[in-house]
Amino acid sequence: xxxxxxRNRVAAIALLALFGIVGAPHAQAGTWNVVxxxxxxxxxxxxxxQPPATVxxxxxxxxxxxxxxxxxxxxxxxxxxxxxxxxxxxxDGFTAVATDITSTTFTDSALKKATYWYAVAxxxxxxxxxxxxxxxxxxxxxxSTPRCV
Amino acid sequence: xxxxxxxxxxxWSMRSKVISATMGTVMAGATAYAATNWFVGLNSGSTAExxxxxxxxxxxxxxxxxxxxxxxYPGANGDVVLKVSNPNAFPVTLTAVQLPANxxxxxxxTDSALAAANTGCTATNSGVAWNFATASSGSSHALTAPLxxxxxxxxxxxxxxxxxxxxxxxxxxAGTFFSMPSLTGVTATGGAxxxxxxxxxxxxxx
Lengths: 149, 206
Hints:
The complex is a heterodimer of chains A (149) and B (206). With 149 residues, chain A is of the alpha+beta class. Chain A has 1 helix and 9 strands, in the order αβββββββββ. Chain A starts with a helix and ends in a 7-residue tail after the last strand. Chain B is of the alpha+beta class and 206 residues long. The longest helix of chain B has 33 residues, at 2-34. At the A-B interface, α1, β1 and β8 of A face α1, β1, β2, β3 and β4 of B.
């Protein structure tokens, strides 16, 4: 009988202890680091390099200098620019005449007698990340005088 | 009267069991009720070990709105936009996230719904990873300010400049949407707190 009584008391204490343990995690204020295999992601987006919206070519003063200055508006996220020139037409024959330009202007000097068109492309971060060429500038001519018109 | 003695002892024994059980139940209930912070994990249920059955895990997903302000390009950082969903009947506060390894890259997609894969810009070559990730998976990154998601609510968050793109990223990765490598965990607590107004912004700095 005494043994039964002791056994019951032990059972009761064990029961209390059990509840105490179950409740323990809830009682601890603070934070826990969690390791999970679940997918938990976010969205990032990259730049699509765009050319300058506006590119202009003007004769550099004095006009006898045989120089043309090309200027353009800043392109979003551009880190440098490439300037192209054509002596064929406004739609064909463009080749790069200046690279790694970090400003928004370029002067093309010592030009020969010809008609010139220019366009600009923007580089974003890496030389492989290059925009399409901009629309071409209006034509400029270096005459035989020589003179820029 | 041995029989009477036995009956009295038995009654006491039974009474002690009932009282003890009741006390235990009340203690456990009171302890849970008084708790100010509960452990909350990420979704899928794989992190539920040791949790109360009444606590559900969070879900973190990619969203296209609001649009990221800082965009990625080779050598640059970009924003990460995500939505945290809290299915619990109490607010949950995030204080840190655990990051995958810095060699785990994001896969590229041609649409913001992340439905059409960009085959030229993949998790193999994009070079897009979480900033401050280390060579080891599971490194913890503290948020600049805790983010509290309302009970049964969602919170859209822009993590400013949380992603980076390697200089080696191919041109095919231009104009691309990225599903960031999955976080390996969060550090979050549940309990009374004022919900963060959304959409929220959190600077990704150390």
